[in-house]
Amino acid sequence: MPKVPDHTVTHADPGRWKALVFIALAQLMVVLDATIVNIALPSAQQDLGISDGNRQWVITAYALAFGGLLLFGGRIADLWGRKRTFVVGLIGFAAASALGGAATGEAMMLGARALQGAFGALLAPAALSLLAVTFTDAKERAKAFGIYGAIAGGGGAVGLILGGFLTEYLNWRWTFFVNIPFAVVAAVGAYLVIREPAGGRNRSTLDIPGVILSTLGLVSLVYGFTRAESEGWSDAGTISLFAGSALLLIGFVATEARVKSPLLPLRVLTDRNRGGVYLSLGLAVISMFGLFLFLTYYLQVVKGYSPVMTGFAFLPMIVGMIVGSTQIGTRLMTRVPPRLLMAPGFLTAGLGMLLLTQLEIDTSYAGLILPAQLLLGLGMGTAFMPAMSLATLGVDPRDAGVASAMVNTSQQVGGAIGTALLNTIAASATTAYLVDNAAGATTPAAQKLLQLQGMVEGYTAAIWWAVGILVVSAAIAFALINTGKPDMGAVAGSGEGADDELKVPVIVH
């Protein structure tokens, strides 16, 4: 039997586990940035003289740039190369963070946040697609995505702890400056360690109409939900943004079906399993964002926890996510079909959420909130891990960046919907409770108690919706995702339509 030439042999990158450290570090930085700034916002607002009306833009500027540019960022990763895009994204994110930390006024702060979002949109899809093309053995892929899934799920809670410490003991500016060492270490490590497989770039011309339509469509959608939270769902501006977003995204899909080199090849979306992942993951994130928001307010306002105590109160969820991702998900991913991890995972998280519908003013942390968080973490960790892997499994390596971007897009849009939708439900329930019970509160103490009871009533009403959303998410995962357990051989680059040389990763130095 003739000897196989060296260039056709699959070479596992000897530095792949070191590469995972730097990819995971970058992902942690992006995810925790979503919550770390929330803790610092009151202090930053006061120092910089930002009005209450413009305060939301510190969060919204980041969300719009990040959500709107994700597909473009994924395509740039496929075009430039994922390693180069990853390093540029890290350097840009660090520079934008330095600008935010040094901000002297409102305009400088909002500009820095928009820049953070733009560079985050380069960084996030590059990180996930690097992971997808670096780990090609099914067992190793399971371990790598277990770690990545734990960080993607638990990073937000880490942000609450870190944000609390930095704001309480140093200064709000350190919630920005802390990104700089993260980014520098990850960028240097990535430059020295990461080796990208050859032949995985998509050098076709950039789809400019697709970039414009998708960016404007996603920005309109995210801003529509943000505006709905503050101005109401029936506001003319809110309705206009949703209508404009629908038209732009319909135009985007029509364009992608016709152009020679689409920004988002429709085959990435129409694959039944990937479509199921994007949809179920986006819905699950709606409920998670709502939970972070309500539980943070409940612990600080109702229970009187400090920012640092609040951060530590989320630790059981982080522990649950790490165990769910790295122990349950990783060990079972190569043995059972993904839907038998994702659907039960979402249902377990739904059970944890169901416990939280029993919140009262005097609810015991150890008796209810702690076990609820453990269930939420275990469920989400178990579900996120195969979802992250399946979203890029079998995709043509030339589409890996944009397929990864779709994972982040579904999460970003889900987060925007979750914050706006569940906040609106909570506010309506609180108002209704206060109106119905106002007559009985005749003393200042009784009125204060009524306000707290109204808040808790609003939170539990919204959490019931979050439970329902997780059940729907589980049903979608079970119904749409029909792939079997992964083969034990190489899995990357085996997508339909991939060129032969793409099916056999060759590490280039």
UniProtKB/TrEMBL annotation:
**Which NCBIfam families does the record cross-reference, listed alphabetically?**
efflux_EmrB
Q: What is the lineage of its organism?
A: Bacteria, Bacillati, Actinomycetota, Actinomycetes, Kitasatosporales
Q: What is its main location?
A: membrane
For this protein, the record's InterPro entries field holds:
EmrB-like, MFS, MFS_dom, MFS_trans_sf, Sugar_transporter_CS
Q: Where in the cell is it found?
A: Cell membrane
Protein name, please? Answer: MFS transporter
- UniProt keyword annotations, A-Z: Antibiotic resistance, Cell membrane, Membrane, Transmembrane, Transmembrane helix, Transport
Among Gene3D superfamilies, the record links this protein to:
MFS general substrate transporter like domains, Multidrug resistance protein D
- SUPFAM superfamilies linked: MFS general substrate transporter
Q: Where is the Major facilitator superfamily (MFS) profile domain?
A: 19-485
Q: Does the keyword Ligase apply?
A: no
How is this protein positioned relative to the membrane? Multi-pass membrane protein
Can you tell me where the transmembrane regions are? 20-41, 56-73, 85-103, 115-133, 145-166, 172-194, 206-225, 237-255, 276-299, 305-328, 340-359, 365-393, 413-435, 462-481
Keyword field contains Zinc: no
